[in-house]
Write a structure and sequence with these properties.
- With about 700 residues, the protein is of the alpha/beta class.
- The chain contains 24 helices and 16 strands.
- Helix 22 links the parallel strand 15 and strand 16.
């Protein structure tokens, strides 16, 4: 006879903790808990199909009056309906967390507890296809509730405005779209700290829309202003925004004995700087959130100027290109850091999304204590959701109003700021995810996407517009082929070849793929091909004054390389976004390629605009540009299995979507790829990556469309 005793309350409390901890005082009264014994051997494998975002076909239409003659399409009216249901508190979601404890000596039995909470979600995601009108849908949501918002404004900090958080290069574009569809709305543009200093409290409260850059914490003086006002002008040290996210540690070793201690459980196997970086991240977040809390207790006058955005409570918040703030891979950050250390482009600051995540308060689970407050809802916009993993879905739900999806409590961001010892204990004590838990993680992620997100394709407005893809193949010279092989840093010379693949690089063996990628981008053969494509386009009848967009990979200096080749060609030239350009200046340069040439000065400007892939998201260039060149195929990673093909394909799709979208004035949109091959026409890196980034299954995962 065998007697088994267990204490289900313990497992139940562990499951409930994730839903309760740090989320406000009212949450604990809404939790229900269940538990059961389960046979681990009888659990089925989870379904791991790609995540899908469905359309809004089943929704009713909501009519919103825009400036004549503009009207929403039916699919756009249905998207408004779904998002307004969220905003009005009519959309329910069951939050879930689980705790599973294997019973020692029980021959495979496990105690499983489930904690659930039904909640009204306050955030949603408009993931319509690129060019399908996410901006006008957002404007329609604002217009629909404009009178209620104006009645909600009150001194000292309740603004009637919707805060629109955008990539820095989209501020003027958003302002232009609002002027087009709802010109009566009062719009304030915040470019940087200097802009804030000119705006009165009264103006912020009475605005209808305030537009700001997602990386405003990187604006010189902005954080100093937050801390200074919070501390009532006392002199206090203000930390700089760290250049690193928190660092994860290695938590295992194969075939190696590692001496350990309570202070260093990993036995020196990890970078000693990791803890310093985690401390910097934790301290910055602490100072920032503490200052924001003090800031909101300030006494102000309506005429005061320079109050940070965090002081105000907004009617709603809209975050454009929300996928840019989702978890970034360590490989992506490492390449960015390396590029930053070797030149002064400012790329790492731009690509590092820490500023955006700090502003959105991703580490703070209580939405009322996050830096940006809203009364009604928070919405994210994205044309390429990039939801290829449960981590990204969990983080998306967290960003959009802190909806809890199972697994958030042990999500890796929790470990970004903890000590090495705490991380070790977490890995040791955290229950391992069984097949049943993994199955629930997948199903709840998909449930969240079904409940809070929608994705509609562009419809009749794209009829008659054809996307034509050209691949210009050029052979490298013999001399270039020698450099190509030599750049395969760390690879045994006997294995260096034209056919080498990114997977052949192993960073643990001392291989360095970054040198290889840079060498591949800077071939004179490639630069000449770029110049020829541009000149051929401009020589076509009717295209003598057309405008061309070139997308490059800033990590490997491809933008500088493309720019230099274009500038060296007499009569061609190009425009690029310089590191020293202010946000306002960048918006101005981009606007040259969004509208027609009105003056002689406009007509004399270069016809070519060079952008980094990092600038791809959100730009509308379709009215003046119908030719786009991908200078080299995108690869982000260190070799081996470190790359993310879905993310790379998504970024290239975003780039193409700048010109292939509704509003395109031509019937044909041309996308040019340059493929450098070996001297004897051998397939090299370009051919491999082009096939990878255009693979149908990979593209499907990048857009996450269910139809």
């Amino acid at each position: 006879e065998v007697t088994v005793k267990c204490y289900p309350e313990v497992a139940a409390h562990q499951a409930s903790r994730g839903l309760i901890e740090g989320r406000g005082s009212d949450v604990k009264n809404e939790i229900s808990v269940r538990f059961r014994l389960a046979d681990l051997t009888q659990q089925t494998d989870p379904v791991v199909d790609p995540f899908r975002v469905s359309n809004c076909d089943s929704e009713e239409m909501t009519s919103v009056s825009l400036k004549e003659p503009y009207k929403l399409y039916e699919r756009q009216q249905k998207a408004v309906t779904k998002m307004c249901s969220i905003e009005d508190g009519n959309t329910l979601f069951e939050e879930l967390e689980m705790s599973e404890q294997e019973m020692p000596g029980s021959a495979g039995w496990s105690l499983i507890a489930k904690a659930t909470r039904e909640t009204k979600i306050s955030g949603g995601v408009i993931a319509d296809a690129i060019g399908a009108g996410k901006t006008v849908i957002s404007i329609a949501i604002i217009v629909r509730g404009i009178e209620k918002a104006r009645h909600s404004r009150s001194f000292p900090n309740q603004s009637s405005a919707t805060l629109v958080v955008v990539p820095p290069g989209l501020i003027d574009q958003w302002k232009s779209e609002i002027r087009k569809f709802a010109p009566s709305m009062k719009v304030i543009s915040v470019y940087d700290y200097g802009s804030i200093g000119k705006i009165r409290v009264k103006d912020m409260i009475e605005a209808d829309v305030v537009i700001c850059p997602v990386d405003i914490l990187e604006s010189e003086g902005y954080m100093d202003n937050v801390v200074r006002k919070a501390e009532k002008n006392k002199k206090i040290y203000t930390p700089k925004l760290p250049k690193y996210t928190g660092q994860q540690e290695k938590n295992g070793a194969d075939g190696v004995w590692i001496p350990s201690s309570s202070a260093d459980p990993y036995g020196g196997a990890n970078n000693p700087n990791n803890q310093k970086r985690r401390n910097e991240s934790a301290y910055y977040t602490y100072v920032y959130l503490n200052s924001v809390e003090k800031l909101r207790k300030m006494e102000v006058d309506k005429q005061d100027k320079g109050l940070p955005l965090e002081f105000f409570e907004w009617e709603r918040i809209i975050v454009d290109e929300i996928h840019e703030s989702l978890c970034t891979t360590k490989d992506e950050l490492k390449l960015a850091k390396e590029f930053s250390s070797e030149n002064d482009s400012g790329f790492f600051q731009e690509k590092n999304r820490r500023a955006g995540r700090e502003l959105l308060g991703i580490t703070q689970k209580d939405v009322r204590r996050r830096p940006l407050l809203y009364r009604r809802a928070i919405f994210g916009l994205t044309g390429t959701p990039l939801l290829d993993s449960s981590s990204r879905v969990i983080e998306l739900a967290n960003l959009m109003g802190n909806t809890y999806v199972i697994g958030l409590s042990s999500h890796w961001r929790k470990l970004e700021r903890e000590s090495c010892r705490d991380i070790f204990l977490h890995n040791y004590l955290e229950p391992k995810q069984s097949r049943e838990v993994r199955k629930h993680i997948y199903s709840k992620c998909q449930d969240y996407l079904q409940t809070a997100c929608c994705r509609n394709k562009s419809g009749e407005e794209m009829k008659g517009i054809e996307l034509i893809t050209h691949t210009t193949t050029v052979p490298m010279t013999k001399e270039e082929s020698i450099l190509y092989k030599k750049s395969q840093s760390g690879i045994n010379p006997s294995k260096q070849s034209l056919s080498i693949k990114p997977e052949d690089f192993d960073v643990t063996a001392g291989h360095d793929i970054s040198k290889f990628l840079r060498q591949n981008a800077k071939f004179e053969t490639r630069g000449k091909a770029l110049v020829k494509i541009c000149k051929d386009i401009l020589s076509r009848k009717g295209d003598e004054k057309t405008k061309i967009v070139v997308f490059t990979d800033g990590r490997i200096r491809a933008g500088d390389i493309a720019r230099d080749f274009l500038l060296a060609e007499k009569g061609l030239g190009c425009t690029w976004l310089d590191q020293n350009d202010s946000v306002k200046e960048k918006n101005k340069k981009i606007s040259w390629y969004q509208s027609g040439d009105a003056t002689e000065e406009d007509r004399l400007r270069p016809r070519v605009l060079v952008l980094h892939f990092e600038h791809a998201a959100g730009l509308n260039l379709q009215t003046e540009c119908h030719n786009l060149i991908l200078f080299s195929p995108l690869y982000v990673g260190e070799g081996g299995s470190s790359s993310d093909p879905v993310a790379d394909a998504s970024t290239e799709l975003q780039a193409i979507g700048r010109v292939f979208r509704p509003g395109q004035t031509r019937n044909d949109v041309h996308v040019y790829r340059i493929e450098v091959r070996g001297p004897e026409d051998e397939e090299c890196l370009d051919g491999q990556l082009i096939r990878r980034n255009t693979d149908k299954e990979t593209v499907s995962m990048a857009v996450n469309s269910s139809d």
